[in-house]
Amino acid sequence: MALSPYNSPIDPSLYSTLAFFLMIAGLGSSAYFFVEQVTKSKNVRSLSKDFSLALVSAIFMGLGMMFTMLTVGIYV
Amino acid sequence: MRLYCLLLALISANLVNEKVTRVFDATTQLLKTSASVQIRNDGKASVSVIQLSADAFNADKLIFLDAKVGNKKLKIDGNLKASLSSPLEPGQTVTLEIEEIYHGSVKPFPTEIKQADKQLVLVEVNLYYTSPYKTETSTAKINIGTKKTESLSKTGKLEGSAVKLEEKKDFEGGSSQKSRVHFENNSPFLVAERLEREVEVSHWGNVAVTDKVWVKHTGATLKGSFSRFDFQRQDIGPFITEWTMILPLVAKDVYYRDLIGNISTSALRQDYRADETVLELTPRFPMFGGWRNHYTIGYNVPSATYLSSDASKYQLKVPATPELYNEFIIENYFLKFVLPEGVTDVDFKTNFELERKPDESRYTFLDTTGRTVVVFEGKDVSFKHAAKIAVTYNWNSILIFKEPLLAISGWAVFFLVLLFFARMDYSISAPVSADKKKN
């Protein structure tokens, strides 16, 4: 068994940067999602667009949240 | 049959301790001895097992015994039988370097003192070298680090800051006679009554170490009330005002706190030459005899320091005990490893006595099935043990995507629920669309 030191798949020094930009993207896309939901009537919205927007927001918010946790020292 | 031969060889072993030189160190709370024993085989058969013995008057306090021939450590079993790497042929001699530590042999006497009093301690050792074999010459010295003695046995003589015991010649195995020294010793009698070390592994590149420490000043207990005014005017005495803990050089996010919160009276500095971080701790109050204290130390270390891997096999190699303070002693010792979710085949290797308890499970952030917590328990671990532990486990590295996926699906559920409610109709009137009216 040849053991080598284990490092994280992503360099921990990048966590704060990643957290910042992912959160910006996540908050931006979820804000757009909310605005879409609130300002437009459901008859003029397209379901596929809403779904894809929800998915993109979820991905950015999920990753952003996780990297924020890693940045502040909650090592998941 | 082989066992029988070995037993026979041991009983019929005709070993003689040619020359024994013992040095006791009683300058701190632990009685440390180092002995150089030259053993000759006077029998007709070769011998490969040597029976060692703890000091006759301190045998129940022995917490550490280590024997070396040259630079080679000998294997010692629970009955203090040392196995030589090559058998001792008849007529040949071998020199053992034996190190022992006794916890509780340096006894405060009187056991209660006033705040301004100095602490006196009593040490009793065997004048003869304790051994099942015959001894030809034995000399011994007790370092006490002071000239201020209260009393000595007649068999001892003060020489500088050490007590030299009478030289003994040609005595049978099992001989014993008490030799005692009563002297002043103000060194910190700090004992960690309990230590809980927790090592939490994250495959996102971090190993978090937490040490919960319960310490006690086990010297002579304080009699009467404590006066802060008198204490300000005291410069030496058997009280403990600070100690130093050694952390790894790469340690970051170090904290020192107790039940109340952060304790600000500490200093942290990096010693690059010694490859360590020095944490100077000052407790909230000076510790007098019999006083207890409890605090928590925690820090993070990059995973590459302790964790290594080969495909799906991982090995976590950590110092099993923190360097709590200079010459520390831990009475009740607990070690926990919080491993990631989904580990299998957990195994361990140590260089000291440790008992594995049933695994526990714990839920922290972004967990579903609970992390495996491997629990160990030990007793009387000292600085001399240089305790290390290596825990190995198997873990599928694809599982690292579990946490981000969990976070993403959590948010996805949130947005989909919003989407669902945004498409419900909340109007009281009949469903005539406002958009249609406009058209």
UniProtKB/TrEMBL annotation, chain A:
<keyword id="KW-0472">Membrane</keyword>
<keyword id="KW-0812">Transmembrane</keyword>
<dbReference type="InterPro" id="IPR007915">
    <property type="entry name" value="TMEM258/Ost5"/>
</dbReference>
<protein>
    <recommendedName>
        <fullName>Dolichyl-diphosphooligosaccharide-protein glycosyltransferase subunit TMEM258</fullName>
    </recommendedName>
</protein>
<comment type="function">
    <text>Subunit of the oligosaccharyl transferase (OST) complex that catalyzes the initial transfer of a defined glycan (Glc(3)Man(9)GlcNAc(2) in eukaryotes) from the lipid carrier dolichol-pyrophosphate to an asparagine residue within an Asn-X-Ser/Thr consensus motif in nascent polypeptide chains, the first step in protein N-glycosylation. N-glycosylation occurs cotranslationally and the complex associates with the Sec61 complex at the channel-forming translocon complex that mediates protein translocation across the endoplasmic reticulum (ER). All subunits are required for a maximal enzyme activity.</text>
</comment>
<dbReference type="Pfam" id="PF05251">
    <property type="entry name" value="Ost5"/>
</dbReference>
<feature type="transmembrane region" description="Helical">
    <location>
        <begin position="14"/>
        <end position="35"/>
    </location>
</feature>
<comment type="similarity">
    <text>Belongs to the OST5 family.</text>
</comment>
<feature type="transmembrane region" description="Helical">
    <location>
        <begin position="55"/>
        <end position="75"/>
    </location>
</feature>
<keyword id="KW-1133">Transmembrane helix</keyword>
<comment type="subunit">
    <text>Component of the oligosaccharyltransferase (OST) complex.</text>
</comment>
Automatic annotation (TrEMBL), chain B:
<feature type="transmembrane region" description="Helical">
    <location>
        <begin position="404"/>
        <end position="422"/>
    </location>
</feature>
<comment type="subunit">
    <text>Component of the oligosaccharyltransferase (OST) complex. OST exists in two different complex forms which contain common core subunits RPN1, RPN2, OST48, OST4, DAD1 and TMEM258, either STT3A or STT3B as catalytic subunits, and form-specific accessory subunits. STT3A complex assembly occurs through the formation of 3 subcomplexes. Subcomplex 1 contains RPN1 and TMEM258, subcomplex 2 contains the STT3A-specific subunits STT3A, DC2/OSTC, and KCP2 as well as the core subunit OST4, and subcomplex 3 contains RPN2, DAD1, and OST48.</text>
</comment>
<keyword id="KW-0256">Endoplasmic reticulum</keyword>
<keyword id="KW-0732">Signal</keyword>
<protein>
    <recommendedName>
        <fullName>Dolichyl-diphosphooligosaccharide--protein glycosyltransferase subunit 1</fullName>
    </recommendedName>
</protein>
<feature type="signal peptide">
    <location>
        <begin position="1"/>
        <end position="18"/>
    </location>
</feature>
<comment type="function">
    <text>Subunit of the oligosaccharyl transferase (OST) complex that catalyzes the initial transfer of a defined glycan (Glc(3)Man(9)GlcNAc(2) in eukaryotes) from the lipid carrier dolichol-pyrophosphate to an asparagine residue within an Asn-X-Ser/Thr consensus motif in nascent polypeptide chains, the first step in protein N-glycosylation. N-glycosylation occurs cotranslationally and the complex associates with the Sec61 complex at the channel-forming translocon complex that mediates protein translocation across the endoplasmic reticulum (ER). All subunits are required for a maximal enzyme activity.</text>
</comment>
<keyword id="KW-0472">Membrane</keyword>
<dbReference type="InterPro" id="IPR007676">
    <property type="entry name" value="Ribophorin_I"/>
</dbReference>
<dbReference type="GO" id="GO:0008250">
    <property type="term" value="C:oligosaccharyltransferase complex"/>
</dbReference>
<comment type="pathway">
    <text>Protein modification; protein glycosylation.</text>
</comment>
<dbReference type="GO" id="GO:0018279">
    <property type="term" value="P:protein N-linked glycosylation via asparagine"/>
</dbReference>
<keyword id="KW-0812">Transmembrane</keyword>
<dbReference type="Pfam" id="PF04597">
    <property type="entry name" value="Ribophorin_I"/>
</dbReference>
<keyword id="KW-1133">Transmembrane helix</keyword>
<comment type="similarity">
    <text>Belongs to the OST1 family.</text>
</comment>
